[in-house]
Predict the 3D structure of the following.
Amino acid sequence: MYNYLIYNALKEHTKADKSFHMPGHKARGDFKTKFAVAPLDVTELSYTDNLLCPSGIIGEAERDIAEIVGAKKGYILTDGSSCGVLSMIYAVRKLGTKIIVPRNSHQSVWNACKLFGLEPVVVQGDYKDGVLLPPPPELIEKLLDNDRTISGLIITSPDYYGNVAPLEEYSAVLKRHKRYLLADGAHGAHLAFEQSGREYAGLYADLWVESAHKTLPSLTQGAAVFANEKSLIRELEEGLSIFRTTSPSFPVMASVEYGYKYLKNNPKIIEEAKSAVQAFKEKCPLKIYPSDDWAKLAVDCEPLGVSSNDVAKILEKKGIYAELSDGKYILFYLSPMNTAAELNKLLSALTAVKSNKKLKKSFVKNQVLPAAERTYSFQYALKQNHALVPLSSAAGRMCAQNAGVAPPCTPVIVAGEIISDAAVKILTNADNVFGLENGKIRVVAK
């Protein structure tokens, strides 16, 4: 059994006088009443260790987490997986001028390319039931055969819909070319505890990051980044020293350690959750996307002829909130902490939706984005003079700043690409977008 080192140290000192060090709330008064976590919220003290240079309980906790997932080194993050993505790409920034970036990569990947002057070699796979798949290994091999300036590949696995990339094949291709596999495993921390484990990014990646808060019992922004390639560790640590906050949240830090150790100490909980999900799938009256990851339930509303956005609104009236809705799918994002009772409530609600004869036919087929025309490079477009134009009249212009939908915080159009009618429609119809300014998009000035 693993002990919860950071939490136990914080808990032991909850009654200590906090008058003479940060944070400013001092764990007292109305603040303590409203925020129960206040007594655990401390700073770097003699008993708490220091995340930036751990030599005590934090260092030991990081070693334990690395051991649990099978990594050579592990680092707790209180800044989300974005911090880990930036640090991983920083670690390989000098090994080439380009990096292979699938189109559905998180915005933090594109931000890293912008920061480090790396040219993203944009790739994409086919669509399956309206969802973009990872690129085939053969495409990665072809790119590496023809370009020695590529440092490696960063891949999201699993993605928001639960598609797991062909990591083993990617790894073999990259190793043959002496290049590196980086994995944005933000959605897959729970996969480290699978009995087969084949879907877990840590089995194949040289560096990988996980959002503990997404699928483990951890607080929001809690994450971890891991290394298996020793030659990248020094640069990874340097990247962490740049992108980590110097004032990390100790409750978040403790919760990351707790999340990994709780599942390791209680292996039955994940099997119970998986069994409950399987029972739900067998009874669900609606079509479910064939996910590789049991924790992603994407219910297909197209057969009903109803927009998943309308279904989401109906469920919200019943107190059920989905992770996202894209018009076709309504996605329920699960974890080992979900119970059979919760899934039965969801099942009843979806069954009622299917039998609701008053639902208006509102389904509109999602736009499928073909591989976009790249007239100039990402870096070229960023460096040119820009102009803001109305999105409605932007088709045919060269994009100068990524724009996309959040969640999942992935771009619909990438800098250097020609804006298509399909991209305009997606951005126009989306409720939450990034990269637009009052309905206008940045383009390369004529």
The CA atoms of residues 13 and 40 lie 8 Å apart. The two ends are 64 Å apart (CA to CA).
